[in-house]
């Protein structure tokens, strides 16, 4: 019904209240027998909550209704903004209205909250650098070739797993696509850009820099100067957001075909764009494997060029197809060569047979 009822024994009254609030919430009681209905309503001693000209509460009557009212606020020059609930959100600020009057709202930047999010991003970036550095430097065991079906049948499952682990080790060692992607990503972090309207142009200005070289480290990871970063956040929080997350503008052409150079975005956007380029190059080279949905989850149209321009055939697939064609061609050549030699051997055998027959005939003639 959308109505809650309660009784206060202390004052001897019933209370009816809608479960929803605002102008669309309403209570209305109707009765099929008006006489009994009036007695019932009078016995409940319900009032509408409103007062008449004598400042007395107006009693509730049959077929009358009570409609809720919207909460109304004035905010920064905007007058009579209506809400059906006292729990409202405006301009990113959430508040509960509990009284009427003038109130001053002060909004401050959650410096620690912003810092923690940036710190998490830096940690995730460093983890990516660690993983790629390990892959690029992983040892290659060239004596461990891929196993054939016959070899696997002769081996135990555990031995197969250990062998394949060695065989796959170092497959991405010094991979040119990954190396190029990581290099472009690192360069983009330190690019100076005048496209920002805030206070910051370089990542070092907000307290983030590359860690100092240490023995055993491949380098490339980022370190944070906590005090400097928090000061930068407090000074210009919007500038920090723009510096990190501003969208990039892609390269386009005008009506005359002239190239209009794109504009770089924020630091995080640049890293994302470079990773997307690297992923697209990997897809073109090796295909999607079983990760098509994963790629689409990162970027919905990442496979578009691969499908439209390359017909979903990777460079490795093309190489395999070419190798198969070469194998077929060589098999055909081998078959023809075998037939050629078979025909030669057959002709030679026939010639030898004739020579033997002639030799025997001559011997018979001499002996006779």
Overview of this structure, please?
Helices cover 47% and strands 15% of the residues. The chain has helices spanning 34-44, 111-137, 149-153, 157-168, 176-189, 226-235, 237-245, 267-286, 292-298, 304-308, 315-367, and strands spanning 3-8, 13-18, 26-28, 47-51, 57-59, 65-67, 71-75, 78-83, 87-90, 93-96, 208-210, 222-224, 252-253, 259-260. The strands form seven sheets. Strands 1-2 form a two-stranded antiparallel sheet. α2 crosses α6, α5 (176-189) packs antiparallel against α8 (267-286) and α6 (226-235) packs across α7. The mean pLDDT is 81.
Proportion of residues in β-strands: 5-15%
Q: Largest sheet, if any?
A: 2 strands, antiparallel
- Provide the structure class: alpha+beta
Provide the low-confidence segments as ranges.
Answer: none
* Morphology: elongated
> Main sheet: which strands, in order across?
1-2
Number of domains: 4
Radius of gyration: 41 Å
Compute the separation of the termini in Å: 134 Å
Q: Could you write a compact summary of the structure shown?
A:
The chain has 368 residues and is α+β, with helices and mostly antiparallel strands. It contains eleven helices and 14 strands. A hairpin with a 5-residue loop joins strand 4 and strand 5.
